[in-house]
Amino acid sequence: MVFPWRFLVVIAVAAVTVSSTAAAPAPVAVRQAGHVVGTADVELDGNSLTWAQLVDVLEADRVTVRLGMRSRQEMVRTRQGAEAALAAGQRVYGWNQALGPLKDEPLAEADRVEFQRRVLRSHAAGVGPSLSDRVARLALVLRANSMARGTMGVRPEFVDRILELVNAGVTPRMPEIGSLGTGDLQPMAAAGLVLTGELAPARFEGREGLAPDILAAAGLAPGFQLEQGEALPLISGSSVLTARYVDAVVRAERLVDTYDGAFALFLEATRAEQGAFDARTHDERRIPAEVEAARVTRVLVCGTGWMTDEGRKAISDDGPRIQDAVSVRATPHIVGALRQRLADARVHIEREANASTSNPLVFPKEGGGHEFVMGGNWDAALIGHEIDSLNAQVADLGVLSQELSARLLADKWSYHLPANLAGGEVGLNSGMVQVQTVAVALVPEMQQLATPAGTLSRPAKFGQEDHNTMAMASVRALHGNLDRLETVLAVHVMMSAQGIDLIKDKMAAFPLGAGTRRLHETVRRHVGPLVDDRHMTPDLEKATDLVRSGELSRDVRAALSPEQSRCAA
Is the per-residue pLDDT at 5 higher than 90? Predict the structure, then answer.
């Protein structure tokens, strides 16, 4: 997946490119929101996974992933070095010592293989909804890539087993709740049970069953035995968290596109002043993402006759408006800040995807041989706090969207649209006041969910794990707010389109902008204009489905073609 061209300025400022020597992903057909038609082809070397490849793995119909030869050879060398270090007497967490508060308990050599099985069983205690198949698949690929760095001491055969499931389309059922963001202990332990053929649930080709049956249906070996030290590298990391973060960033980018479209429709409906989007004022602020956000708005409304002095006079003779409210004038600043956060997230995700996120790690020693080093590389403090920050900005976008849709209800702030956006006889018809109330109801929930979980650490395991990032709670809250934002934006889109329809006869002499005309047509293909009052829940559900589908996002991106963009230069 290539970067949307309109973000290149932002990303050039924010990004640090991760070098890639891996095979490029195979070409894929036309992309849709949440879906890539075709097959993604990726080779893992532990160092070269790109954002584009991560999105391909997340969204493609099928994936083909393989371990690179150099990584395979390095993994063999590290495994041999790890076994030699153990033979020389090094005491190692999770290899010949037990886990957590039992870290000081030694493991007899005869018990070390059995210990791997028991680690998976004891740690697979998660509950709640399961990760989607797409996210579970990406988490497995991320874990395999981290292992491919050759610092965890696992055999390449273990990575092969992970990728066998990925390539066959088998996904473990991995519950969301239980991990603290200090490693992926619970969901990846559930994946480990499936990898090894235990009686744990998995999915394949739309059906769910226990691993032995699912593996057989996929034509895979019924079991796989972990050797000593291989359970912990699977579960001690940030792969599930990172996979969920990738999914959140993809969703957020599409919803910001949709906000851009809803905002442009709002501007047309209220015949807003265009000065707030003048390139000169944003150039003076010197924030590239803000400059780009203002340009996007200019492109979408380019050619409008509604947002002119003549257009405004067609509805009323109120005189000069001077300037619009802060919610209108500051949108490029708010959206630009969010776009910058998303560009930064891509960079940090690439780094996380190509890092050794486990404990312990195995390194060559000066003078020969290898040694284990115990540390905290599973900790996800950076991306955990970043997720909290992104969630706060997503919630703020929800506040902004709700404030704008509310303005459409009142004569003073809609600049003489019919009260409540009622069609037909106002008063007899109540219009869209209760549709807007849905957004009002959701915004406080978004604000509450935006409380940063990263500040709410809780000690666990007798104080052995006395600080936890709580990042899994952070990413669950972020996805919850993205769910709510879909509906808040649906309200915004419905009401803005209604505002346009209510005055379009009076504005017949004036054109909409090229981008807003296309967006309005898309909305009307799914939800009809409101004349007399009708049952509104079906309309709002259709509008939410439209937002979720990504069709409006694609309309916005299509409007930003080079030819259309010249209109707003």
Answer: no
